[in-house]
Amino acid sequence: MDMVRVRFTPSGAEAVVKKGTTVLEAARAAGIAMESPCGGQGSCRRCLVEVGSDFVPPVSAGEFYIIQGRFRYILACQTAVERDGEFHIPEEKSAIVTGRDVLPCLCHSGGEEPRRLSAENASYLMPEESGAAQLDGPLIENSDLVITPPSVEDNSSDWSRLTRAVKGICNAGEITASRELLSDLPGVLRDSGWKPRVYMHRKGESVGIVSVSTPESSHYCIALDIGTTTLAASLVDMGSGKVVSTKACYNPQLLHGEDVITRIIAAEKEEGRKLLHGAVVEGIEELIGTFLKERMCDRRDITAIFCAGNTTMIHLLLSIPPRSIRLAPYVPVFQAVPLMKAGDAGISLVPHALLFFFPAISSYVGGDITAGVLSSGMAGCDEISILMDMGTNGEVVLGCSEWLTTCSCSAGPAFEGGGITHGMRASAGALHSFEIAMPERTFRYETICDEKARGICGSGLIDIVAELLKAKYIDRSGRFDSGVSADLLREGESGAELVIVEGEKSSSGKDITISEADIANIVRSKGAIHAGMEFLLSKMGLNFMDVRSFYIAGGFGCALNIENGVRTGLLPDVPRDRFHFIGNSALQGAIMAVRSGRARTEADRIAGMMAGFELSEEHEFMNRYTAALFLPHTELDRFPSVTGS
Question: CA separation (Å) from 430 to 162, 262, 421, 515, 571?
Answer without folding.
Answer: 56, 26, 13, 17, 23
